[in-house]
Each structure stands twice: as C-alpha cells, then as structure tokens.
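REQUEST FORM: STRUCTURE PREDICTION
Request ID: SP-0412
Submitted by: Lab K.M.
Chain count: 1
Length (residues): 632
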Amino acid sequence: MRLDQLQRPKRLGIFFFYDKDGIVDDYVSYFLNDLKLSLDDLLVVCNGVLTPEGREKFKKITDNILVRENKGFDVWAYKEGMEYFGWNALSNYDEVVLLNFTMYGPLYPFKNMFEDMNKKDLDFWGITVHHGYDFDPFGTIKYGYIPEHVQSSFICVRKEMLNSIEFKRYWDNMPPVTSYGEAVGFHEAIFTKEFSERGFKWAVYVDTEDLRKHTYYPLMLMPLELVKNRKCPVIKRKGFYNEYNEFLGSTTGEPAVEVYNYIKEHLDYDVNLIWDNLLRSENMADIKNRMHFNYILSDDNYPTETVKYRDDKIALIIHIYYEDLIDYCFEYAKSMPDTADIYVTTSSPKMKELIQIKFSKLNCKKLEVILIENRGRDVSSLLVGAKDFLLDYDFVCFAHDKKTKQFEPYSIGESFSYKCFENVLSNKIFVENVIDTFHKNPRLGLLTPPPPNHAAFYGVLGTEWGANYEITKKLAEDMKLKVNMDNFKEPISPLGTMFWFRPKALKTLIDYDWKYEDFPKEPNANDGTILHGIERLYSFVVQHEGYYPAWVMTNSFAKIEVTNLHYMLRELNTALFGQLGHHYGHVHLVNSIWGNISLKSLVKKKFKAKAKKYTPTFLWNILRKTKQKIRM
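STATUS: Completed
RESULT:
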C-alpha cells in the first residue's frame, strides 16, 4: 500500500519512554514535537515512574499518557499501548508507528522521511536495518541466529498488516519479556522475518544494502556515513555509552566522536540536548571512552586567538608542605599568565615566610600566601583554605608539592609528580592553550593528567577506585549528586590531585560546608580516607553540574605516553597471548584463567598458590610487589 495515494494519511504514534528517575529530558520533547507534525495522534507509554515535571512536558505534546509498571521492556509497552486503543480503533489508522526514546534526533525533519516512504508500496517499514548475525549471542532467538531485521526503535505498520489476523495473533501470543535478551529474541530480531515470510512487504528509509559486508550494524558502527551521506534522521543514544568492545571489535573507535562532530559543525541539531541527557544519566567513563575526551595541547605554539581571553579571571592555587620542593613548585608556577592571581597555601609560619620570599619574584597580578591547618593536606587547601574566593574565577589550576615515598627507588614517585606537573603547568604556551580549550569546549569542566602507569603504578590501571568506592559513593549521596557511579568503571578523576577546572563546575563541592575537622589528623593512611574519596569525587561533581571531565597532556608528554602504552601492551601480548586475535580474546582468556579460581577460595590460604599457578611469573611478581602499595 502506498500512502501518497491518500489525500491525508491518518497516522498514530505509540512512543515508549523509560528513565529510571522518571525525568523527561529536552531531547525527548524536541524529538516528539517534530514527529507530531507527521502524526494525527500520539500515545506516550512510560515504564516505571514519571516526575510531575516530566508529565507536564508530555502534556504539552499529547493528552494521551500511560504510565505502567516497569515490566516487559519496550515490547510490552507497545503491546499495552495498542491495547489502550483497541483493535477496532487501530483499524481507523492508515499507519501506526511504534518507536522509543533510544534515539537522538531528528537531525533532518521527520516530515521528509514520511513523505518519501509514503511513495513506497509497503506493509511495514523502519528507519534502519540490522544486517544480522550468524549466531544468537542472547540464547533467546528461536532461529539460533539474528536474522536481518528492521530496528525496533522505529517501526511503522500500515493498515492491511495492522488489521491482519497474523499481526493480532503475534501480539496476543507475546510471551512475558524479563530481560533485554528476551526483548531482542522475542520481538526485535524476529519481527521482520516473521512477517516477511507471511508475505508482507517491508523496507527501510536508510538503504544500507551496499554496507552489508562493512558492518552488521550500520547505525551504530557507521553513523557518520548514514547521517552525512544518507540523511539518516537519528543516531542511537547508546552509541555514546555502550560497551566499547562493540566499537573496537569492528573499528578503531571513531564512530561516536565522528558523527557528533559532524552534527555539531554542520547540522542545526542542538548538541546540548545530547549533553543534558548523557551527563545526567550515563557513566562518565563510558562517555569519555566513546568521545575520546583526551586533549593533547601544544607546548610550543600559542593558540591563534589568545588576546580575547585576557579578561578571564584566572588563578593558580598551589599547596606546598615540603621545604625542599619550594623551588620546584616555583618553576612551574612561572607558567601562569602575568594576569593570573596566585595563592600558595602552607601549614607553618616558617614555610610561609620562605614561600613569600621565593614567590615574590613571580610576575603575576596578585600573590597571597595563606597559612592553613596541617590537616587535610592538598584537599583542605583547596576546599577550606581557598573556598572563599574560588567562585570568583573563571578558570583555576590546582597543584601541590608531591612526594611519593612508598616506592623505591624514589624516582618512581618523582616521575608521577613530573607527569602531573608537566600536564598542568609545563610552560606559558601550554597554559594559554588550556584556557583556549576551555573556551572552545563550553561543556568542559575539568582537565586532569592521565593516571600513572609506570613501574609499580602499573597496577593502578583497572584498580582506580582502590579502597575508595564506598567512601566516594557516600560523599556523593551526602551532596545529593545525581550521577551514574559504578565501581566496575573507573572514575575519570585526578589521581594525583592536580588539575584545571571551571569553579562553577565544582560548585556543589565548593559550597559544601567543609571544615578542617572533616579530615583525618596526621599521619594519614595511604588509602581509604575521605581525602582519597574526594580525589575521586571531583569528576562526579563536574558531571552533576552538567560538565564533563577529560584528560590533558602536552604534545611533548603525549609522545612519552603513547610509547609507554604501546610498549606495555606489546609486552603483554608477546608474553601472554601470542596469536590469539584482538584484545577481547585476550580479556576472555585472562577471565577464563581467573575463573578457574573459585570465589570461595578467595578467602582460603590456598588461593595464593592457585593464583600463582595460573599467573605468568613476571605478572605475579608485579602483583606481589604492588599489593597494598598502590596509593595516591
């Protein structure tokens, strides 16, 4: 059936919505307001909860709102939505659109898509197709593999199929859906094949037949091609936070950042709609990895438009405890612009006098040496000693003298300090580029060097939380932060506590009523204290305020980092994995080895011997030496 033969096709939309907090972000309103231009009626089916504010947003678009128990995923939301109208009422529509909240868009008006698809003789259609797998990763698909199918985030069904006995029977016999895998296996993966085999004609708006050999999932893995060259009106939300293996198993990791940059630079879609939703609801480690939030900034070429930023209020806050590091810190402080204010905190009158003498040689707008209590170290320096003036500034650099003596030789700790200082205060050119980067990226809230990974610090990779997840989570709850925190996903935090930030991006943390008594007395434990919790909390506060954290390196240091990472990965591959294939196979092998060690044995003495048996000697030695010593 072709709808362009009708004077005015009558169309119903059934929109499935879910948010664990019941919040309706503006990307949903934008999506539906455009979609409604092509609909006669719209029903919103919400699984779970819906806030009063969310209901008001939906009411501005439609009076038909159904809030139901969070059961059955999108499948049963569609089923109950159709039952809400009844089969007799549905028969009055020329087309019923079953769609959901898992897309950002429209990037191009939906009206164009409907007009084009109206010309096609079809029984059902969608926006994009999944080309299928030759296996069933969920174990729920009756065919034993994933057939080619129209993606269920947007399926339009026309009158003849809508009124058919087969369509009614399909939904009447729908089994309970209790998992994502069942939602795919019982509906999405089989819908197209089921109805195609019964003689119903189908197509998709974005033709990707020529990409069949390129990827099974064009919308996820080739979104730029679809958006730029095929006018696809949507992108998937989960492209910004799904398992990174899905990208890295088929690409070099570019899909999300490429399509985002194209949308930002070439289309009218407001990317703030994306950020408002992602930063509120998803884990920052996932977002950072998909968007590659790693800024490699020049330390030998100034930005081209430095002059327009000279009115910015910029400050350096640096805490110095060790007398022998005053000169070291002074050399890095010289990297700040002449227009900056510089505050140095310390905990003894003698140190204050020595610092005042040395730092008075700086060329800066203002210098103030502040005496603070010797309690809370660098954290209290920032959150108590500098609290009263932090929000007066546009951009602030925070640093501190750093001695790490739990490892010998001491060069290990000194190199950690070097990595931190070089990537926040290497020289004046780099600092100007940092400021320029904040201006060019209005959602950027915090820039921190990458975590250490050399020598005994290698064990930090994969153990970034240390013993601090519960402490950090409790702090987040006390401050009522609304963020996605996961102890299996690393905090994108300044492990080393040196970073650049927008004070307004840390406002919740700054406004908290911190006192010196909140911090433990000296001597401090090497891990598991409130100091280590706050160190990991910074990035979550930034996310709560609607900004994102990122890593930053000088172009000079990035050369070192790339060499280190490549060398370490190559050594692991050579020693452990041989010709096993891509990294996911390596991870699977290691997990299989450790899976041979029962959870029960973790609490028994024999665990040590069993673990050693399954671990290569060189790796076991690293683990042994690093045990209980990875402390920041």
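NOTES: The longest strand covers residues 11-18.
Reviewed by: T.R.
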